[in-house]
Amino acid sequence: MKFVSDSNLIVALVIPVPYTAAATRKMQQWQNTNVELVVPTLWAYEVVSSLRKAVAISGLSADRVAAGLQYILSLNIRQVPPTPALHQQALIWAGRLNQIVAYDAAYLALAEEEDAEFWTADRRIADAARNLNISWVHHIEEA
Prior knowledge:
CATH architecture: 3-Layer(aba) Sandwich
Strand order of the largest sheet: 3-2-1-4-5
Helix content: 55-70%
Structural class: alpha/beta
Number of strands: 5
Mean pLDDT: 94
Largest sheet: 5 strands, parallel
CATH class: Alpha Beta
Order of helices and strands: EHHEHHEHHEHE
Radius of gyration: 15 Å
Number of helices: 7
Number of domains: 1
Distance between the termini: 16 Å
CATH topology: Rossmann fold
């Protein structure tokens, strides 16, 4: 079985947020059942940006964040490079979700292509997908 995770869930493994415990449980479950975790390559940039933001805004030490990045990059996560078809699907998903930008839609496009469930910490995305009767998009609170 395959899963796609947004960057926020993975960052929550190393930076405390309200859903850190749920994200940690979900990651442990994925690792214990040997599922394949798949992400678009833009995920890595989002992770690094979120970690940098934690240093700048939250005052976390650069050393702690660097160690967190090393941990995240050591996880068995397959990064999928973009293709023209994925870009086209991201545009379609952004429209379906009524989003101005297509970053988040890239995750849904990948999940659809990989026949995977998508997990997110973004309530708006989860609710928009639910309103479209899409059953393979989940919010971390469902974990």
